Amino acid sequence: MSRLPNASTNSHFLLRHASLRQIQIFDAVSRHLSFTRAAQELFLTQPTVSAQVKSFAEAIDMPLYEQVGRNIYLTEVGEKVANSCRDIIDRLSNLEIMLDDYKGLKRGRLRVAIVTTAKYFTPKALGEFCKKHTDIELSLKVTNRENLFKRIEQNLDDLYIIGQVPKNSSELEVVPYIPNPLVIIAHPEHELVGQKVTLKRLANEPFIMREEGSGIRSALESLFSAQGLKINERLTMETYESIKHCVMADLGVACVSMHALSPNEHLNGSVAVLDVEGFPLQKQWNIVYPKGKELSVLAHEFLEFLQENRKDYVQSIN
After folding, report:
1. DSSP alpha helices (H): ranges in the chain?
2. Taking every annotated instance into account, which residue ranges of this chain make up the domain HTH lysR-type (predicted)?
3. 278: helix, coil or strand?
4. Closest to 318 in 3D by CA, of 181, 193, 184, 187
5. What's the pLDDT tens digit per position in 203-236?
6. What is the DSSP string of 163-217?
């Protein structure tokens, strides 16, 4: 008589049929949404990656992705499995770091994602941190606010640096970091330079704006809307370098973080900061990560490092 599988046997099905290598491969495929790029990252052939993902999907016994032409799209189950794969890899990475600590070594992986204007101080912080941890594997992703929240949902990184925290932030651990003052800049020969400017007067000026999804764009739109004013948008740019060049060309005014302005831009007069009512708009950087996420040893150390050295980055914008 055949023996019926018990609950314990069913609960360990994946332990018997899925390998850590398959988990690693599916994690790479889910991040890149490409068998080719996953193979390149893992130094494997594309057929090997495809075969391992196929075996992994068979072990799950549910479709993990859909392929339309050359494009891969994760199913709802695939998204859940990908998140679990990342959790497993993170826990193993944390174990590896802990074991290295016992051996007197400092190795591991640190993944940080930041909004665009945080790139003006985060690399400096990472550089100082890496002087003490020379053998770590480092990843830094720079993107806008909207894409950063997608990365948080997908659990792609260890820590995130953002400006505005969403209203529904109950699922995030939020660590207040450093001030992020926003200012209005113009061409140094603009007629408003040296004047006290009302927001109503500023609304007449053509604006160079960041793209949809930018935190600073959202903050500026909220400020104007609260006063019953509309922004006179002339151009939309995706980087602060392009925005500053448009301002230097006298194409309009712009709202930027003080972090985005180097001392040289003030000294050589390439841009001017306008004296506008309500500005500088006092915002703040925040370090966030999903609530309940177990930070790796390196991520925890980097978080402490940022907090202990925050004065260095506040001083850099004063």
Report:
1. 7-11, 13-17, 20-32, 35-42, 46-60, 76-102, 122-132, 145-153, 199-202, 215-226, 240-248, 263-267, 297-308, 310-315
2. 20-75
3. coil
4. 181
5. 999 999 988 878 888 889 999 999 999 999 999 9
6. SSPPS--TTEEEEEEEEEEEEEEE-TT-TTTTSEE-HHHHTTS-EEEEPTT-HHH
